[in-house]
Design goal:
By secondary structure, the chain is of the alpha/beta class. About 45% of the residues lie in helices and about 15% in strands. Strands 1-2-3 form a three-stranded parallel sheet.
């Protein structure tokens, strides 16, 4: 699933993806407007695959999906 890090409400995208992934065994790929440094500072336990930075480039999206599917 492609999930934004920031969501409206009490839960962020990482928490939501964790619940969905646990329930349905679906890998998660995250996107964010944060810089990578800012993201690492905010999220101490980052996802396995680094998030895509917005605006998302199609080639990078395809590459990250391929990496995620090989894990």
């Amino acid at each position: 699933m492609l999930m934004d890090i920031r969501l409206k409400g009490e839960m962020d995208g990482i928490e939501a993806a964790d619940i969905i992934s646990t329930s349905f065994d679906i890998p998660s790929l995250f996107m964010t407007a944060y810089s990578l440094e800012e993201f690492k500072r905010i999220y101490k336990s980052p996802p396995v695959v680094e998030p895509l930075q917005k605006p998302i480039q199609e080639e990078e999206l395809v590459h990250r999906i391929q990496v995620l599917l090989t894990l």
